[in-house]
Amino acid sequence: MAHMPVAERRAQLIAATSRVIGREGVAGASTRRIAEEAGVPLGLLHYSFGTKEELFVAVIDDAVDRTYQLIAERAAAPGSGLGRAVTDYLETFRHWALAAPEAMVTQYALLTWMLRTQDGHAEAARRAYRRYLDGLLPVLAAAATEREHDVDLHKLARLAVATADGLILQLITIGPEAVGAAELPEIADGLVHGARPAFNRNGIGIEGNA
Question: Locate the HTH tetR-type domain: which residues (predicted)?
Answer without folding.
Answer: 7-67
